[in-house]
Amino acid sequence: MIGTLNEGALHAQLKEWYRRPGDLLEQQVAGYVVDLVRGDLLVEFQTGGFAPLRRKLAALVELRPVRLVAPVASSRRIVRLSDDGEILSARRSPKRGCLHDVFDRLVSIPALLAHANFELEVLLTHQDEVRMLQPGRAFRRRGWVVQGRALVTVEQSLLIAGADDAARLLPELAATFDTADLAAASDIDRRLAQRMAYCLRALGVIAPVGKRGGSVLYART
């Protein structure tokens, strides 16, 4: 599998891992090709940003229940291959992911999560990131270009079906807080906390209540 990996490998592996007997793959619905159909439920898998799916999801939720399945890499192994597909080296990436990382992508469609026909399933996964040497490219990685990602295991699944489920991702906080407080309590960086706050504000989970210095203060609604 690793020797023939491409950018669509993780997407295909997720569909295969997710499917159950009776599920239909690659079905035409209202002019769109849907990844998986399970009874009345339409399931889309997205390994990258959500923005390219904005129009498609907005159309489908007006017709049927829709579930968007998004993997987040809890851990990642960096695998370097030769031109012949042989493994040259493999090491664990120091970067660790968490469920909150999905807000980095949800920021492009936050209001959709309030739609009665839409839900988001986040899969916390372990993945392999495969790289091959292509001199002159990927300068910061010294020519090692990412060829694709492969699914190793799924560690956890979290279904977010509306504002109440999204609110459960908020940590324990003071009555009012800014994104620095949110970042510290969630053990994430400030940029991700800002995106999380943007999404939760769009869902009506939190609301601005003032300012502290140059930072907006929020409170749970």
Can you put this structure into words, describing what you see?
With 221 residues, this protein is an alpha+beta fold. 21% of the residues lie in helices and 39% in strands. The chain has six helices and nine strands; from the N terminus they run H-E-E-E-H-E-E-H-E-E-H-H-H-E-E. The strands form two sheets. Strands 1, 2, 3, 4, 5, 6 and 7 form a seven-stranded mixed beta sheet that branches. A hairpin with a 2-residue loop joins strand 8 (206-212) and strand 9. It starts with 8 loop residues before the first helix and ends with a strand.
- Quantity of strands, as a count: 9
Largest sheet: 7 strands, mixed
Order of helices and strands: HEEEHEEHEEHHHEE
Q: What is the distance, rounded to the nearest whole angstrom, between the alpha carbons of the first and last residues?
A: 48 Å
Helical content (DSSP H or I, runs of 4+): 10-25%
Taking Cα atoms only, what radius of gyration do you get, to the nearest Å? Answer: 19 Å
Number of helices: 6
Structural class: alpha+beta
β content, as a range? 35-45%
The shape, in one word, is globular
Poorly predicted runs of 5 or more residues:
1-7
**Which whole number gives the mean pLDDT?**
91
Which key features would you list for this structure?
9 strands, 221 residues, two-stranded antiparallel sheet, single chain, alpha+beta, 7-stranded mixed β-sheet
Give a short overview.
This protein is of the alpha+beta class. The protein contains 6 helices and 9 strands, in the order H-E-E-E-H-E-E-H-E-E-H-H-H-E-E.
